[in-house]
Design brief:
single chain, 28% strand, Pnp Oxidase, Chain A, Arc Repressor Mutant, subunit A, six-stranded antiparallel sheet, alpha+beta, 10 helices, seven-stranded antiparallel sheet, Beta-Lactamase, elongated
């Protein structure tokens, strides 16, 4: 009797490479490691075919093969005897496997070189544990439960939902969400990115990194985060095998003189040694509002159940973002802010605005660009020229020079980005919330503004 394969989910995460043995028609054996053994259901697995190799040729001649899997926690070894059924080149299974491989290929500049040719579906006809694989037997896996009882999925959902519902601004919402990821799940490295223009995402909030990473950019369709944004689909990449395989393929191509045809590697913000990554799109009514990205040095940090559970959280966050934007727009339609706060003087701080790419520098150091850069320059000119310190989101939306979209302009996200960049790079200038849709500019040094083409 074959046990349910879903009970062995850890074995399919790719932490330990899987081996496969096939045999040609004439009886010649071939043993190799494979890129991906994909769990399909309790009776089927799929193999990723990325090159016209010996394994695939053997399966076509002789459909029987043997696969070995390892549990990365207990180091138990399992042997699967499988029968090759079919090669799928389209459909949900193929697309899911292809998207995962495309993500790794994009990260290492192997787009067009490292790609899925087919998802080779196999029926599992025998499943057995390899006895005495470890002389002393597998170690026990300790489970730690909190003093107040197990934190079940329902309790975790209750905790996160409560924090999300209490948020009264986008800043509060993102802070509450990332704090909850860390406190409830133990996810110590996370970030939120939002669209900036048509082809880029920009980081506006993060947790767990030495430097906050606010302002880091990702291009749509490149790397894990960029592909999640472009496809509006959750993606999880786990296990050292995925990235080490991509690295090995790239190194081999470069070593054989083909490096000139490769795309540059994409320097994603975050951990340079992440062993597991998960990214979730924030989508409301078919519109991409952002991406939540989680990382860990633990290759088993994200499990199958996290995908469905965290997608629920991502949906709630997206709906909350949509709600907060609607509430702000409604309030702007009812009232305008007129109050002024006293400007603060003293000492020269040189800021330069470059018109060509809407970029602001403090001295010789880059601060911010694009629409957030234009917003800052508008505020600074009003402060220096008119002595103004009180501003509203509404007036920013109505200023044609900023070039904000007429509908769903993502203004709140851009203001969060600008505020946090100022906190990091220029604490002498602060944007202080003064009620919904209102903020004040606080400046502690005299400003010297200059514009360049």
């Amino acid at each position: 009797m074959i046990p349910r394969l879903s009970r062995y989910a850890r074995c399919f995460q790719g932490v330990i490479p899987s081996g496969i043995a096939t045999c040609a028609r004439d009886g010649t054996p071939n043993v190799t490691y494979i890129s991906q053994v994909y769990f399909v259901d309790d009776r089927h697995v799929a193999l990723s075919c990325q090159f016209f190799n010996k394994t695939r040729k053997n399966l076509e001649e002789n459909p029987h093969a043997q696969i070995e899997l390892w549990d990365p926690l207990t180091f138990e070894c399992f042997r699967l005897r499988v029968r090759f059924l079919r090669a799928e080149t389209s459909g949900p299974l193929f697309e899911s496997m292809a998207l995962r491989i495309e993500t790794i290929a994009s990260q290492f500049g192997l787009t067009g070189v490292f790609k899925l040719l087919s998802a080779d579906v196999c029926e599992v006809i025998q499943f057995e544990e390899v006895e005495d694989f470890m002389a002393s037997g597998p170690p026990e896996v300790a489970t730690i439960e909190p003093e107040d009882g197990p934190l079940t999925e329902i309790r975790a959902l209750q905790c996160l939902s409560a924090r999300i519902s209490r948020a009264t601004s986008l800043d509060e919402l993102l802070t509450a969400t990332l704090d909850a990821f860390q406190e409830v799940f133990g996810f110590g490295h996370s970030m939120v990115l939002v669209p900036e223009g048509e082809r880029r995402l920009v980081t506006i909030a993060s947790r767990g990194y030495g430097e906050s990473g606010v302002g880091a950019e990702v291009v749509f369709g490149e790397g894990l985060i960029g592909i999640v944004a472009a496809e509006q689909r959750l993606l999880r990449v786990g296990g050292a095998r995925d990235t080490s395989y991509g690295r090995a393929v790239r190194d081999r191509v470069v070593a054989t003189g083909g490096g000139g045809a490769l795309h540059p590697e994409i320097p994603l913000p975050g951990l340079h040694d992440a062993a597991a990554q998960l990214a979730l799109p924030l989508v409301a009514q078919g519109r991409l509002l952002g991406v939540i990205a989680l990382e860990s040095r633990n290759p088993l940090a994200f499990d199958e159940w996290h995908e469905a559970f965290l997608q629920i959280i991502a949906t709630q966050v997206a709906m909350a973002i949509d709600r907060l934007v609607d509430e702000e727009l409604e309030e702007e339609a009812l009232e305008d802010a007129t109050g002024e706060l006293p400007a603060v003087a003293p000492a020269p701080l040189k800021l330069t605005f470059y018109k060509r790419d809407d970029c602001v520098f403090i001295g010789d150091e880059y601060l911010v660009r694009n629409i957030p850069g234009k917003i800052l320059w508008k505020l600074l000119r009003a402060f220096v020229g008119e002595g103004r310190t009180a501003f509203t989101n509404r007036e920013l939306r109505l200023d044609p020079w900023l070039g904000l979209p007429e509908i769903r302009d993502n203004l709140e996200s851009r203001l969060i980005l600008l505020r946090r960049r100022l906190e990091e790079k220029c604490p002498e200038i602060r944007m202080v919330p003064a009620g919904r849709g209102r903020f004040a500019l606080e400046v502690t040094r005299t400003l010297a503004l200059a514009e360049r083409d």
